[in-house]
């Protein structure tokens, strides 16, 4: 075949990724991906894996040695599925809080295991009160797990996980606490040990400011006992025992060809979070999100989430009557180089989802989004008034 020199080179546009994720990658994380690539069976890489696991333990506050901590080699939804495939078997009962797209996804994935899924629902923007989840547990005392989304990406709502975990521990019993930390890890406190979480999963592309492609997991000792007692094997890709042998045990047992450059990226992202200091990082997210929310409300916009449970890092803004929400998103992208999200799923109300996460959790990023709202929405209102 004749060599060609006329093929276009890759030249994606610059964007401020101020939607629900991914967020812009931290510059030091991108730089880490330029470092020499080792083989997945190189002993020097295996030392890096153990260091990364230690960083991840610190960020999750999962220091109990009985817990298994490592990043799964796929995205956050794969982390969700890893937990459900390991912790549920056909005929088991699972209680799932469903208040948005990702609570609904947990319920759907849990059903695929053959489990009996008890969904406790609320409208978008609300939480399922812990009292209702505990009432469902009273009615189903043999439930194998209770699942909640800590930070619901589709609505901007925070679930009070700490209080739920405390009550489950007070009651005792064998029901495990399963928590989606996709939009919370790195943006707000997640205390795996102290809150009594049994299975947590997250992603790399939101508040950790790395590329998408891995799912940081943490699994408690008692959850691992549940896994060891299974009657049926899990799919090979989700086998925690086999994954432990690659990530933790030495010498390594080959399981898969690890995504080396993504491992470098996550290593640097976690190292950066610890260097910054977790409390400082959480405050940075609180300050940026709070600034955006105060300013957008001062312009007359309404937020979707119950104010008591509003996330800082993800804000769902209601689209005003008479405004074309999708057209506004398109203009943000084409005229201002900014991505914001819309409603997710057929049941979502008309909203814009604005994320200020990771590297983007800064007032200057919030102000840039606000300036785009001012420019685009003033035009939209003018058109609506003359229609």
Strand content: 5-15%
The CATH class assignment of the largest domain is Alpha Beta
* Count of individual beta strands: 14
Write the CATH architecture name of the largest domain.
3-Layer(aba) Sandwich
Tell me the major beta sheet. Answer: 7 strands, mixed
Could you name the CATH homologous superfamily of the largest domain?
Type I PLP-dependent aspartate aminotransferase-like (Major domain)
Distance between the termini: 58 Å
Order of strands in the sheet with most strands: 2-10-9-8-5-3-4
Could you list the spans in which at least 5 consecutive residues all have pLDDT below 50?
382-387
Number of helical regions = 13
Secondary-structure element series:
EHHEHEHEHEEEHEHEEHHHHEHEEEH
Helix content: 40-55%
Structural class: alpha/beta
Shape: globular
Q: Return the domain count.
A: 2
Mean pLDDT: 96
As a whole number of angstroms, the C-alpha radius of gyration is 22 Å
| CATH topology (fold) name of the largest domain | Aspartate Aminotransferase, domain 2
| Oligomeric description of these chains | single chain
């Amino acid at each position: 075949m004749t060599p060609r020199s006329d093929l276009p080179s890759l030249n994606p546009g610059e964007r401020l990724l101020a939607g629900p994720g991914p967020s812009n990658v931290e510059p030091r994380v991108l730089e880490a991906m330029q470092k020499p690539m080792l083989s997945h069976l190189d002993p020097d890489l295996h030392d890096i894996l153990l260091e990364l696991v230690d960083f991840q333990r610190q960020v999750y506050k999962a220091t109990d040695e009985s817990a298994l901590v490592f990043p799964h080699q796929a995205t956050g939804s794969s982390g969700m599925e890893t937990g459900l495939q390991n912790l549920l078997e056909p005929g088991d009962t699972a209680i799932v809080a469903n208040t948005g797209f990702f609570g609904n996804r947990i319920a759907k994935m849990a059903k695929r295991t053959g489990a009996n899924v008890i969904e406790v629902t609320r409208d978008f923007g609300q939480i399922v009160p812990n009292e209702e989840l505990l009432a469902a547990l009273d009615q189903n005392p043999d439930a194998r797990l209770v699942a909640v989304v800590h930070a619901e990406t589709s609505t901007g709502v925070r679930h009070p996980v700490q209080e739920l975990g405390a009550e489950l521990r007070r009651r005792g019993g064998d029901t495990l606490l399963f928590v989606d930390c996709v939009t919370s890890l790195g943006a707000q406190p997640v205390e795996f040990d102290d809150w009594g979480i049994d299975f947590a999963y997250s992603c790399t592309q939101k508040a950790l400011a790395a590329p998408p492609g891995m799912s940081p997991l943490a699994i408690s000792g008692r959850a691992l006992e549940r896994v060891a007692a299974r009657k049926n094997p899990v799919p090979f890709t989700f086998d925690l025992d086999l994954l432990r042998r690659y990530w933790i045990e030495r010498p390594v047992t080959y399981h898969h060809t690890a995504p080396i450059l993504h491992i470098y990226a996550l290593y640097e992202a976690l190292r950066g979070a610890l260097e910054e200091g977790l409390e400082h990082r959480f405050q940075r997210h609180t300050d940026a999100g709070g600034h955006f929310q105060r300013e957008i409300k001062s312009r007359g916009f309404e937020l979707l989430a119950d104010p008591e449970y509003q996330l800082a890092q993800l804000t769902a803004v209601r689209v005003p009557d008479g405004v074309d929400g999708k057209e506004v998103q398109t203009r943000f992208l084409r005229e201002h180089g900014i991505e914001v999200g819309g409603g997710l799923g057929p049941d979502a109300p008309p909203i814009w989802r604005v994320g200020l996460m990771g590297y983007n959790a800064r007032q200057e990023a919030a102000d840039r989004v606000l300036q785009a709202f001012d420019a685009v929405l003033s035009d939209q209102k003018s058109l609506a008034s003359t229609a």
